[in-house]
Automatic annotation (TrEMBL):
<comment type="pathway">
    <text>Amino-acid biosynthesis; L-methionine biosynthesis via de novo pathway; L-homoserine from L-aspartate: step 3/3.</text>
</comment>
<keyword id="KW-0808">Transferase</keyword>
<keyword id="KW-0791">Threonine biosynthesis</keyword>
<dbReference type="InterPro" id="IPR019811">
    <property type="entry name" value="HDH_CS"/>
</dbReference>
<keyword id="KW-0486">Methionine biosynthesis</keyword>
<comment type="similarity">
    <text>In the N-terminal section; belongs to the aspartokinase family.</text>
</comment>
<dbReference type="Pfam" id="PF22468">
    <property type="entry name" value="ACT_9"/>
</dbReference>
<keyword id="KW-0520">NAD</keyword>
<dbReference type="InterPro" id="IPR005106">
    <property type="entry name" value="Asp/hSer_DH_NAD-bd"/>
</dbReference>
<comment type="pathway">
    <text>Amino-acid biosynthesis; L-threonine biosynthesis; L-threonine from L-aspartate: step 3/5.</text>
</comment>
<dbReference type="Pfam" id="PF03447">
    <property type="entry name" value="NAD_binding_3"/>
</dbReference>
<dbReference type="InterPro" id="IPR049638">
    <property type="entry name" value="AK-HD"/>
</dbReference>
<dbReference type="InterPro" id="IPR001342">
    <property type="entry name" value="HDH_cat"/>
</dbReference>
<keyword id="KW-0560">Oxidoreductase</keyword>
<dbReference type="Pfam" id="PF00696">
    <property type="entry name" value="AA_kinase"/>
</dbReference>
<dbReference type="InterPro" id="IPR054352">
    <property type="entry name" value="ACT_Aspartokinase"/>
</dbReference>
<feature type="domain" description="ACT">
    <location>
        <begin position="342"/>
        <end position="414"/>
    </location>
</feature>
């Protein structure tokens, strides 16, 4: 049909019936986990109108592992054990296969079950022999571990036949001949093609089901293509059958930008070049075996990775075409590695050292995953498999024995527990800044980089890191390349007035931040003085209900460990308590790389040594300490001061009204109502602390002044501030009720001060001051009626900075400076600044 001919040129639409041609489909263990899945696979194959269709199958999910375990168990079981453990496992495995056969084939199951029983009897004989030998020869392991594919192909073949399809089952051990070389498994193409041609003469069916994974070696012994080798089998059969395409069916929508088990936000890639797929596979992307590419590349055969559970999804197409988008397409992790480091001053400028390292490792049959040499040539480091590390170290010690004795080489060191993180993409070539972005993301996530290597193809940058950091590193890098959001584990302490409002604001803004700014603020923990709620995934919605329901006692050690356990790239603790004990923890949090954001004045105004420890810890680790909301709530007071100082300005004096409560009282106090009445009114309106003496004493204002003065670089302490308390000595010790009841005792004194101010044409204001000669004071002062401080709205705060640049006319920050809404917003803004500093696009 002419329409078919046209279609054959084009990429078939998803799920469409393909035109007449040869296609090899490989089904991984995840696609054939049980009878139901085999049925699904069969339907999927039958729906495709290919002229020759080859289905290469893996063993049922988990069967290869089970077979290997069986062999190891048998070899380790002494003969004569009454019911050896391997027997039980063997029974289980046979039952699983029989069960699948019966479920799949129903009344046609008889011959298949009989055949399976024979195979399992043979297997039992081999296992029995292993326990007699008391060891596991490689050859026997090869034979045993490949059995699952033989069972699997048979099951699918029988099922297709039971559906009335004429299909042939190809045992790859009859045709495929391979040899195991240093670089992996090589196919004897000529011999294999001959054997296949012969097999085809006897089995000319259009539909073939073939075993993956298994083959024979040149000595005609049964062998396998290595773990996950069925992908390679698929590619080999695609070449041998001269297929037009190879489809690799698995349980994900194709190749993703990272392993979805580590980075759940990983995105599906529409297309990849062979080179990109090779690098990803080589560096551990399990979705496709690295050797799969070579037969395909040689023939220009497209490989399509796709999802059996979602057959209509187009999947990922791997071809020779390159596109330079990205620049990074995918990231991988290879675990279980070690670093072997050769270090010595005697290596500097000596040619051929790298060559000797390579030669020594090659002779010791150690394959090198990555090698890197500092430009100082002072050390060469190689990353090798953990299992090869001792051999590698010994080989180098041996090869450089002379240099070690004479001191030209100081040491050959081994560092275990290493993973390699690789960033892959064709678009990286010639594009500056990719490596910088990777290192920046890792640096910000506090990941220590041990070694770096970039292939000359510039398609891959690999970094060796501690395995303990691997998950965090992968997520941070993934987010760093905007492949997934910047993610923060957030913990909030003190869900009181400000804390609760912040939690509401945070949860309300979460969705928008995720969508617009690609920022994922994940609330993982809330703690009050008594209780805490730790959530592994993130608290959403009704945090109050969940917090009330929690019965876990507060424990800040566990709280901290829980936040760190998330392996999220960034961790931030928001302290909305007013507790000095919580502030005591800041240095240790910051040292661990946890950012701290707080409206708690304890740290900024508390003991100088704690303050210094906080600053030092933050400077050393790079974690941020932000406390904008401690002064002027949401007003940009500290950040304005910072900007002045950072741009080279110098502060001469600071002056202001830092208390919304005191601002309100003196704005209102004009003599028409006694002062005590105003305090009572303010308390009723919720403008004061529960005990109004906390406001009237002036300590809170003094604390804010200390914070600003310290920020300006001077070592001021609370004791250094001259504080005028508005609470007379006689009222300081009594209860709140008693204090409120006796409050009118202060009225006469206030009235007198007001009268004298008015007589001079002035008003009273409670002002904080750092004057030009460094004197810090807070207290009630008289100011002209036209003064900026005399003309504020009721509870407004005001801060006035006189600096070298702003000398004639000071810089003023003014606005509402109290209330849970604006304070929480100030804290939230700090949190967002921390996120922006870590690369969030805000
Ligand atoms: P199969 O049995 O089909 O061969 P595998 O378990 O061998 O399946 O490979 C598929 C799995 O590989 C996926 O389920 C996924 O968890 C994992 N994987 C690791 N890295 C990637 C990646 N970059 N893209 C897609 N899947 C990946
Ligand atoms: N069944 C084999 C394994 O698990 C081969 C494969 O599925 O690719 O390694
Ligand atoms: Mg696989």
């Amino acid at each position: 049909m002419p329409s078919h001919a046209v279609e054959a040129q084009a990429r078939p639409a998803a799920g469409a019936v393909a035109p007449a041609r040869t296609v090899v489909h490989k089904f991984g263990g995840t696609s054939v986990a049980d009878a139901e899945r085999y049925r699904h696979v069969a339907q999927l194959l039958l729906a495709r109108g290919e002229s020759v269709q080859v289905a290469v199958v893996s063993a049922m999910k988990g069967v290869t592992d089970a077979l290997i375990e069986l062999a190891e168990l048998a070899a380790a079981t002494p003969v004569g054990a009454t019911t050896p453990e391997w027997r039980e496992r063997w029974h289980e495995l046979r039952a699983r296969h029989r069960g699948a056969a019966v479920a799949l084939l129903a009344e046609h199951a008889g011959p298949a079950v009989e055949w399976l029983d024979q195979r399992f009897d043979e297997l039992a004989q081999v296992l029995g022999a292993l326990s007699v030998i008391g060891g596991l020869p490689g050859e026997v392991l090869q034979r045993v571990q490949g059995q699952g594919e033989v069972f699997s192909a048979r099951l699918l073949g029988e099922h297709l036949r039971s559906l009335g399809e004429d299909c042939a089952v190809l045992d790859a051990r009859e045709v495929l001949v391979v040899s195991h070389g240093e670089l992996g498994v090589d196919v004897d193409w000529e011999l294999s093609a001959q054997r296949l041609a012969r097999w085809r003469q006897l089995n000319p069916q259009a539909r073939v089901v073939a075993t993956g994974f298994v083959a024979r070696d040149a000595q005609d012994r049964i062998t396998t293509l290595g773990r996950n080798g069925s992908d390679y089998s698929g590619a080999i059969f695609a070449a041998l059958f001269e297929a037009d395409e190879l489809h690799i069916w698995t349980d994900v929508d194709g190749v993703l930008s990272a392993d979805p088990r580590v980075v759940p936000e990983a995105v599906q890639l529409e297309s990849l070049s062979y080179d990109e797929a090779c690098e990803l596979a080589y560096f551990g992307a399990k979705v496709v075996h690295p050797q799969t590419m070579s037969p395909a590349i040689e023939r220009g055969l497209p490989i399509i990775i796709r999802n059996t559970f979602q057959p209509e999804h187009p999947g990922t197409r791997i071809t020779s075409e390159r596109d330079f988008s990205g620049p990074v397409k995918g990231l991988t992790l290879s675990p279980n590695l070690a670093l072997v480091n050769l270090e010595g001053t005697g290596l500097i400028g000596v040619p051929g050292t790298a060559e000797r390292v390579f030669a020594a490792l090659r002779n010791a049959k150690v394959s090198v995953v990555m090698i890197s040499q500092g430009s100082s040539e002072h050390s060469i480091c190689c990353v090798v498999k953990q299992e090869d590390a001792d051999r590698a170290q010994a080989a180098l010690v041996n090869a450089f024995a002379h240099e070690l004795t004479v001191g030209q080489v100081q040491r050959v060191q081994q560092v275990p527990g290493i993973s390699v993180l690789a960033a892959v993409g064709d678009g990286m070539a010639g594009q500056p800044g990719v490596a910088a972005r990777l290192f920046e993301s890792l640096g910000r996530a506090q990941v220590n980089i041990r070694a770096i290597a970039q292939g000359s193809s510039e398609r891959n940058i690999s970094v060796a890191i501690d395995s303990d950091h691997a998950t965090r590193a992968l997520r941070a890098a993934h987010a760093g390349f905007y492949l997934s959001p910047q993610t923060f584990a957030v913990g909030v302490i003190g869900p009181g007035n400000v804390g609760a409002t912040l939690l509401d604001q945070l949860l309300a803004a979460r969705g928008g931040l995720l969508e617009r700014a690609n920022l994922d603020l994940r609330l993982r923990a809330i703690a009050s003085r008594g209780r805490q709620l730790l959530d592994p995934r993130g608290i959403e919605g009704d945090w109050r209900g969940r917090f009330q329901a929690t019965s876990e006692p507060a424990d800040l050690d566990r709280f901290t460990a829980h936040l760190l356990d998330s392996h999220l790239p960034h961790v931030v603790i928001v302290d909305c308590s007013a507790s000095p004990e919580v502030a005591d923890r800041y240095p240790q949090w910051l040292a661990a790389g946890i950012h701290v954001v707080t409206p708690n004045k304890q740290a900024g105004a508390g003991p100088m040594d704690r303050y210094a420890a906080i600053r030092e810890a933050a400077a050393a680790s790079g974690a941020r300490f932000r406390y904008e909301a401690t002064v002027g709530a949401g007003l940009p007071v500290i950040s304005t001061l910072r900007d002045l100082l950072d741009t080279g300005d110098a502060v001469t004096s600071i002056e202001g009204i830092f208390s919304g409560t005191l601002a309100w009282l003196f704005n209102k106090y004009d003599g028409s109502v006694p002062f005590s009445h105003l305090v009572t009114e303010a308390r009723a309106l919720g403008y004061t602390e529960p005990d109004p003496r906390d406001d009237l004493s002036g300590t809170d204002v003094a604390r804010k002044l200390v914070i600003l003065v310290r920020e300006a670089g001077r070592a001021l302490s609370l004791e250094d501030v001259e504080v005028e308390s508005l609470v007379p000595e006689s009222l300081r010790q009594s209860s709140v009720e008693d204090f409120m009841a006796r409050l009118q005792e202060v009225d006469a004194a206030f009235a007198a001060r007001l009268a004298s101010a008015h007589a001079a044409g002035q008003v009273l204001r409670y002002v904080a001051r750092l004057d030009a000669d460094g004197r810090a004071s807070v207290g009630l002062v008289e100011l002209p009626r036209e003064h900026a401080f005399a003309n504020l709205r009721l509870t407004d705060n005001i801060v006035q900075f006189t600096t070298r640049r702003y000398c004639e006319n000071p810089l003023i920050v003014q606005g509402p400076g109290a209330g849970p809404e604006v304070t929480a917003a100030g804290v939230f803004a700090d949190l967002l600044r921390v996120a922006a500093g870590r690369g969030a696009r805000l």
